[in-house]
Design brief:
disordered C terminus; four-stranded antiparallel beta sheet; alpha+beta
Length: 195
């Protein structure tokens, strides 16, 4: 700045003018929808929907939710790494750094460890992860028992939900089975392919 020029702070708006400007923006349904679209996280959208019935109506509109999902894709919280140690398979969850405060709180509340399903004789593998669900295959060699199940880290109280055993005709000379979580239905639908 040049010499002799004084810098002045802008004068604060009177409360009535500020309220009128806020109402002009938030009272316009088109502007409100555009603001809600840019919240970035579903958790923020849920909080915004609790403001009023009008905000809930916008936030729960199916067309709005499709646009919200398009603009705010799912974020990767982390991934599972399988390693061998002393002839034992270990599965560890590795969170993605850095996380925003919203996602960090989700990671803090969830139960991503699979240690609860481990036993001295049980071996398990992560078969698939999708939409907040982890598909686990377990094998108990002492009893020669295979069990497939789904662990939901964000809802640990559910425990391991066992998937029914696949019935395959035994007279087939060669067959393979593939178990994976469906992309639809939030990973709650299990699809089996075999040949």
């Amino acid at each position: 700045m040049g010499a002799g020029v004084e810098r002045t702070e802008p004068s604060p708006r009177p409360p009535a003018a500020s309220a009128a400007a806020t109402e002009a923006v938030l009272g316009d349904d088109d502007l409100l929808r555009e603001i809600l679209l840019r919240l970035g996280f579903p958790t923020c959208l849920v909080r915004a929907a609790a403001v009023s019935k009008r905000w809930l109506r916008h936030a729960s509109d199916p067309a709005f939710l499709r646009r919200f999902r398009d603009l705010n894709p799912l974020r990767l919280l982390g991934f599972y790494v399988t390693s061998l140690q002393h002839h034992r398979r270990l599965v560890d969850f590795v969170p993605m750094p850095p996380q925003s405060p919203e996602l960090a709180s989700v990671l803090h509340r969830g139960c991503f460890s699979l240690n609860a399903y481990e036993g001295p004789a049980i071996r398990f593998t992560v078969t698939d992860c999708r939409n907040g669900s982890v598909f686990i295959g377990t094998f108990n060699p002492a009893e020669n028992v295979f069990i497939d199940g789904v662990h939901t880290p964000l809802h640990p109280a559910r425990g391991l939900v066992t998937v029914p055993e696949i019935q395959i005709e035994k007279d087939s000379s060669c067959y393979h089975t593939f178990l994976f979580l469906s992309k639809e239905a939030g990973g709650g639908l299990y699809l089996y392919l075999y040949y």
